[in-house]
Each structure stands twice: as C-alpha cells, then as structure tokens.
Design a protein that fits this description.
Elements: H1 2-28, H2 37-52, H3 57-79, H4 84-104, H5 106-109, E1 115-116, H6 131-157, H7 176-201, H8 205-228, H9 231-242, H10 244-248, H11 253-279, E2 281-282, H12 289-302, H13 307-331, H14 336-357, H15 366-369
Antiparallel strand pairs: 1-2
C-alpha cells in the first residue's frame, strides 16, 4: 500500500509540474495548446538518451528543457499570430508528428521497442542514506506537506475580493462544495505525506524519486508564482483578456506570447524527465494525446490561472484515477473491457457538472477571468 501511495505521489507531482506549464500557456496567457505532450516527449527522450551517453542527469534534464523550449520557439514563431482555433489544430498535429518520429526513428529512439533506462542512470538509485540523511529527507517532506496545507488553509480563509463587505471583520464563507473539496485535498496530502515518510525511512529508489519530484515541483511553483505576480505576469493576463489593450500600451504581444509558450514547454520538458524515470522504460505509446487532455482536466478542475488550483487538481485527479482503477473492479458493476471507457466517461460527466456549478474551477476567480462582468 505504501509503495502504491508513493507511486501516486510521484504521478501527482509529475502531472502537477506538467500542468503548471499548460496553465502558464492557457490559464495566464490564453494560448490553446492541445499538443502539450510534445514538450514532455522531447524532454523525456532527451533526458534518457543524453544520460545514457554519460551526460550528468542535471545537465540532461536542463538540455531536455532547452530542447522543449526550442520546440516551443519553432511552433510559436509560425503559429502564435494565428487565431486560437488554428493554434489548437497545429499543436495537436505537432504532438503527433513528434510521437511518430519517436516511433519510426529506431536508430535514435529504438522505436516501438522503447528505451530502457539503466539503474545507474536513474536519480538517487544508488543512494544509500544514513539515519541522519533519512531524518533530513523526512524533514524536507514535512516542510513541503506543511506548506501545501498552509496554502490550502490560506485560500479557504481568505475572503473573495468581490464578496468583501464594509465590515472588514466579517469573513464570507466559501460554498459547502468548496469546503468538501478542500477537506478531500487536505486528507489526500496528509495520506501521501505519511506514506512518503514511511517510504523514506525504509528507503528505496521510488521514495527518492518522490522526494526529488516534490522538491522540483515546489521550486518551479515558487518561481512561477513570482513571475505571474510580476509586471510580466500582469501583461500575460491582459493578453488573455484582450490583447488589443496591451498592444495599445505599446507592448509586444507576440513576444510575450512566445515567452509564455516557450517557458511552459520547458516546464513540460522537465516533467517529461520525471515521467521517464518513473516508467524506467520509455515507449512512444507513452505520449499519446490523452496525456495532454489529462493535463487539461487538471487545469480546468483546479481553476485556470491559479497555480495552487492546478496542484490540487493534480492530486484530486490521481486520487480519482486510483479509486476507480481499483475499487470499481471489486464492485463487479462493469466488466474489465469497458472499465477504461467508463472511467473516462465519468471524468467528462464531472467536468460538465463542474462547468455548470463552478465554471472557473475549484480555486479559479470568476471575476478575474471575466474582467469583473
């Protein structure tokens, strides 16, 4: 059970990182990217192949992120001046081209046979921690979990700007549905923390990868928060709402779009490295379009334009995936051949209900996304 919860934590962290890149592109800038998995593909293969050639893992990951950003540059130069629907078509086409290149260029990627990662090329695989090291790692995990719970509590207790009254001491209550979602997310975080602490004490490779992925996710989140709250981030939001306004103020809208597109691609490239390390064998079939739409589900669920919401969306999405994957077969209500389609159908139903009940997502701000209208 502990091992599976560690797997769940790695998956949630990897998809959270992947979705943060998409949230920067769409949630903050308004760029519709249906081929986000292309950046993950480039990052994953670059990290795996370069590390196999003897390149240090950190440099291999950074090179993967650079190549993913370069792909974003090539896509952006040719498409970001197009209308949103054309951009969406081009990006999903590029993602399939990248996957087919990985499938057919066997001299580089071994095609459908996949690239198996040797243990010596996995991060922290040969690490043999002492008791002091284990205590330090558990302490780092505790700080990350505590910070996550604090951010969750801060969100719930902070009143919405448009609901504040003249009485500043009055704290308007959030809807009961959001309270339930917050409690579920908090319990999931606590459960994953306990399982992670146990796994780190009884150290194995998966536990080390879990901690590393969470640390990288925390750093990327912190940097993104500083960026989107800066003047650069405010320009991205202005472009999302109406790009004619920043144009009238003399801003180079195309350049800002390109920056956001490349940076989101680089973040997805880093997520690709963790995705590959978790799988330990990389196949082209691991990077099908459904990966992109899982990220869209996470961003829409958590709230577009909100990085905390994206992370909560990743945790809830993977909790749902685990529960339906293991609980539904035990109930015997549906046969195994139809289970996958049923789970996807339920996700679609949940999103439709969410769009009716709370179209801005769990943590999204409706007044911000509609200019207060």
């Amino acid at each position: 059970m502990v091992n599976y919860l560690v797997f769940l934590a790695i998956s949630a962290a990897t998809y959270g990182l992947f979705s943060l890149g998409l949230n920067l592109q769409w949630g903050f800038t308004g760029l519709i990217n249906f081929g986000h998995v292309a950046f993950m593909t480039v990052g994953a293969y670059a990290a795996v192949l370069l590390s196999a050639l003897g390149v240090p893992l950190i440099l291999a990951v950074l090179m993967g992120a650079f190549l993913a950003a370069l792909l974003g540059l090539l896509i952006g130069i040719s498409t970001l001046r197009l209308r949103e629907d054309y951009l969406a078509i081009v990006t999903i086409g590029v993602s399939e081209v990248v996957r087919l290149v990985a499938l057919n260029e066997e001299w580089l990627t071994r095609g459908s046979f996949g690239v198996q990662i040797e243990q010596r090329h996995l991060p922290l695989a040969n690490f043999n921690p002492t008791l002091f090291s284990k205590v330090v790692m558990i302490g780092i995990l505790t700080m990350i979990a505590g910070w996550a719970l604090w951010k969750l509590w801060q969100w719930y207790t902070k009143p919405s700007r448009h609901k504040q009254t003249a009485d500043q001491d009055h704290q308007p209550r959030k809807p009961i549905g959001l309270l339930i979602a917050g409690i579920i997310a908090g319990l999931l975080i606590l459960t994953l923390y306990v399982a992670g602490a146990v796994a780190l004490y009884n150290y194995n490779y998966r536990a080390g990868l879990m901690l590393l992925s969470l640390v990288v996710l925390t750093v990327v989140y912190w940097l993104l928060e500083r960026l989107v709250r800066s003047p650069w981030g405010r320009i991205l939001k202005a472009i999302r709402e109406d790009e004619q306004i920043p144009k009238a103020l003399g801003k180079n809208v195309f350049w800002y779009k390109l920056q956001a597109f490349m940076l989101g691609g680089a973040i997805a490239g880093i997520a690709g490295a963790f995705y590959a390390w978790q799988l330990t064998t990389v196949y082209p079939s691991n990077f099908e379009p459904i990966i992109t739409f899982n990220a869209w589900t996470i961003v829409v669920l958590g709230g577009a334009g909100n990085n905390v919401g994206t992370l909560i969306g990743a945790v809830i999405f993977w909790a749902y995936d685990s529960i339906t994957r293991f609980v539904l077969p035990q109930l015997g209500l549906i046969d195994s051949s139809r289970l996958g389609a049923f789970r996807i159908m339920v996700i679609g139903l949940i999103l439709m209900v969410l769009m009716i009940w709370r179209p801005q997502g769990i943590l999204g701000k409706k007044d911000e996304l509609t200019l207060g209208r």
